[in-house]
Amino acid sequence: MALRHPSRPPAPVYLFGRRVTMRPLAINDFREWSEVRQRNGEWLTVWEPSRFAHQPDPTTDKSAFASRCLQRDRDRAAGTAFQFGLFVDGRVAGEVNLNNVIRGAMQSCTVGYWVDQDHAGNGYTVEGVALVMQFAFEQLGLHRVEICIVPRNQRSRRIMEKLAIREEGVAQRYLEINGTWEDHVRYAMTSEEWHARRSEIVRTWITRTA
Q1: Cβ atoms within 10 Å of 54's Cβ, excluding its own
Q2: Where are the beta strands (DSSP E) in the chain?
Q3: Is the dihedral of CA 176, 74, 101, 167 positive or negative?
Q4: Residues of the chain where predicted confidence (pLDDT) is lower than 50
């Protein structure tokens, strides 16, 4: 097997759905990504972990965004996380990120996502999550994908309902969100469930139509 040159970044992964394209964000995406994030600040930050005050903000600091992209390249090379920009008509519309990949006996990961408010309600995020789950089960060979959502985040939970992802219960004070330890509803799918429902999910959300 050929060895990867240590200074060479890993090849980006592209995922193609019915209407969306997904790939790792790169430094050249900064201006567009920054505009979307700043415009959606109030829409998004109430559902996200707070940033440490002493850390540069990648939303406004290009060098911080470049460091973010570089770290994500490292994560991808190590196989610990695979983060994707969600593109609609070639423009940044959000992200769907596959994080916390654990191998060994667990073979699991978590998925998180956000979308530009201007694109909400069109099913783009559902399509993106379906693509990432297909990638997790069929290319990474994982056994379990988990998505954890603040109970009152009805828009995000609606995505789980559309994909008919199994709900497992509530984890109390599970993650710090916007400065508060929040309960989270835990959703999950196993590889057995994926393969039982694969044709339905791919046909409904992924396959390109003429």
Answers
A1: 5
A2: 15-16, 20-23, 82-88, 91-102, 108-115, 144-149, 166-177, 180-190
A3: positive
A4: 1-6, 210
> Domain residues for 105?
15-206
In sequence order, what are the beta bridge partners of 170?
A: 185
Q: CA-to-CA distance for 51 and 3, rounded, in angstroms?
A: 37
Tens digit of each residue's pLDDT (9 = 90 or more) over 33-84: 999 999 999 999 899 888 755 678 999 999 999 999 999 999 999 999 999 9
Q: Which residue has the tokens 């939303």?
A: 59
If one counts the domains in the chain, the total is 1
How, if at all, do strands 108-115 and 144-149 pair? parallel
CB 25 within 8 A of CB 85: yes
CATH of the domain at 120: 3.40.630.30
How many residues are present in the chain?
Answer: 210
> What is the reported pLDDT for 56?
87
Residue 30 lies in a domain: yes
Contact 71, 78 (CB under 8 A): no
- Tell me the C-alpha to C-alpha distance, in Å, between residue 136 and each of 77, 143, 144, 150: 15, 8, 9, 23
CA–CA separation, 27 vs 69, rounded Å? 7
* C-alpha dihedral, 169 to 132 to 70 to 119, nearest 10°: -90
pLDDT at 1: 42
